[in-house]
Design brief:
The structure is a homodimer. The first copy, chain A, has an eight-stranded parallel beta sheet with strand order 4-14-13-12-11-10-6-5. Chain A has a three-stranded antiparallel beta sheet with strand order 1-2-3. A three-stranded antiparallel beta sheet of chain A has the order 7-8-9. Chain A has two domains: 232 residues, Queuine tRNA-ribosyltransferase-like (TIM Barrel); 116 residues, no CATH class. In chain A, strand 15 and strand 16 form a beta hairpin. Chain A contains 16 helices and 16 strands. The radius of gyration of chain A is 21 Å and the shape is globular. The longest helix of chain A is centred in the last third of the chain and has 27 residues. By secondary structure, chain A is α/β, with parallel strands linked by helices. At the A-B interface, helix 4, helix 13 and helix 14 of A face helix 4, helix 13 and helix 14 of B.
Chain lengths: 391, 391
Amino acid sequence: MSTPGFTFTVTARDGNARTATYITPHGAVETPAFMPVGTLGTVKALTSEEVASTGARVVLGNTYHLALRPGEDTVRALGGLHRFARWTGPMLTDSGGFQVFSLAARRTVDDDGVTFRSHIDGAPRRLTPEESVRIQAVLGSDIAMAFDECPPGDADRATIERAMRRTSAWARRCLEAPRGASQALFGIVQGGIHEDLRRAHLEDLGGLDWDGLALGGLSVGEGVEDMHRVLRAIGPELPEERPRYLMGVGAPRDLLVGALCGIDLFDCVLPTRNARNGQALTWRGRVNIKQSRHRRDDAPLDPRCDGACCTTGYSRGYLRHLFVSKEILASRVLSLHNLHFLGALLAATRRAIAEGLAERFVEETLQGWREGDEVGPAVPMTRPERWRAEK
Amino acid sequence: MSTPGFTFTVTARDGNARTATYITPHGAVETPAFMPVGTLGTVKALTSEEVASTGARVVLGNTYHLALRPGEDTVRALGGLHRFARWTGPMLTDSGGFQVFSLAARRTVDDDGVTFRSHIDGAPRRLTPEESVRIQAVLGSDIAMAFDECPPGDADRATIERAMRRTSAWARRCLEAPRGASQALFGIVQGGIHEDLRRAHLEDLGGLDWDGLALGGLSVGEGVEDMHRVLRAIGPELPEERPRYLMGVGAPRDLLVGALCGIDLFDCVLPTRNARNGQALTWRGRVNIKQSRHRRDDAPLDPRCDGACCTTGYSRGYLRHLFVSKEILASRVLSLHNLHFLGALLAATRRAIAEGLAERFVEETLQGWREGDEVGPAVPMTRPERWRAEK
């Protein structure tokens, strides 16, 4: 059932939430965990040492992007994805499906696969389940993903059902395709925001020989309430004994809701992309650093944060100046901060689950945020540990 | 003569070259030294911790840029330039003269000062010797520079002579203007590539109450042979007992020639700007990382370099990929490398001067470079210490 080198052990349960230790050939990860995205072999703006410092244990690579540039053969010639990207921990590659459907120009889908043109130079290329698994094997990730068709969030029911049928057929071909000897393969459940379709697809795929199961096709344009409804309905029904991965989700609130629904793994470009757009994640909500209110504010981004950005003298005023001056250092510091925040958020979530306080932790944390709002000048505030003392 | 808090002590001489210890209120610097440029309060792409790791002790700020954005009053409100930019060591600010003449739109020079429009938003502003010193005092640098007129490298003799006369008059006004209690002030010698004009200007300014003297108006478009000729003629004639600063020069060869001519301090954007353009400085010459020859090269940039870039697994192939993919990490790693290289180059220069081997070190180092060429795939090569063993 499980690929050699991988074990998944649930260590605590609290309602539908759980903590687990997932051991891979490149090391262990405590879940629930957020996995930063290193699209082209680098988590944008950061070194691998910095990424590791945020508590991240698994980094993603994008098969579509790496296959187009520098090409999987170049990655192999340079020692494989771990050596290439200087990441010694576990790596996960997606299948390329999502990017083919969202980025490629002039794509044509048939039941065998997808023909498309590169978004970089227009060169033609074809991706099939077998080709996706082959590329992922060449890249050498620890966890490969099945090649799926991911319809947009506003797709009609018939389109979603057709994508499910293709994804189901492709899933079986992915499982048959040769992959790395110590490379796990996760299946992807589609079905949009329709609980009955999600259940049907899960029933079809759940019994196959996957190392883990993912929910795809969420956070793709549907409303957040719909996403949470699907998570609450389907999350707890995903197989118990294998990792559950919610793809493309990284907003702090969605991570907390996902963890309560029993999700183990998350990935998203949100923390690093938002950072490059001047948006910081904090224990009080989002901070838009370019606002003029920060111009002469000598306080750190978040006095509750113990990351380098908030404890080594980067003032909001200086960060604002760096951002409006388009200095690279702004992207660096905010990216590091946002990943550190998500790392701390999920570490606190794991502690809360272990202590049977998951619901309360999520509730109090959400109350502390005024998402969409901006926080005012930094003020003294309760420590994240406060709610634990009140147990 | 000297501003309180500063001492300059020559520690070794070798021909016209010398080593010295320059003590400032924010710490000591061993010279000859290269000073990275932090135009807007950040050495582009790097943290202050990284800059310090390259051996740099003094960082520059640009008065023109900082006065326009975020404004000197904002820097003061955020604790002054050191606190703002998180640099605990000495800082030097230029006078704004060079930028006013090279960047500002629609500038009008008169004998009192310069009226110009900001290159950012076209807002009108005026800079005079007194205003330049006032802004530098507000910024709070350790070393302020006199406000000078810097003519372009192709200016005719009459233009240069007029600029010298203005610079001389402005120099005296800068010395009279109130500045920080522990803020040194350096004068600037102009005169283009004309040795007689340089000597005349030095004679006019050299006896004034400066803490140090700089050569301005070099590396501004004149030929490199002309620059070296002026350096050889004028460098050794600069006052012995005070620091000598060659402004805007950062090419490795020019640093070595400058050191042989008795220069103590250098600054330039070259190492960081070249880095962002994919050009690395190495002990074998310049490496243009975007060349396709590096595509599958697993070797480090420079096996003789002991910096993080060359000792922690960044392959040329990976760096090329980062660069062509426009990843921020490329600018980061190459900037750090180039500053590390210049730091190591000047540390080796100081050792050579102390051992009486300055000429030989420079000759052998220049022979090892094929500047303008590219180095081939990395090969084993002699250590930088080899020439020392042959003493």
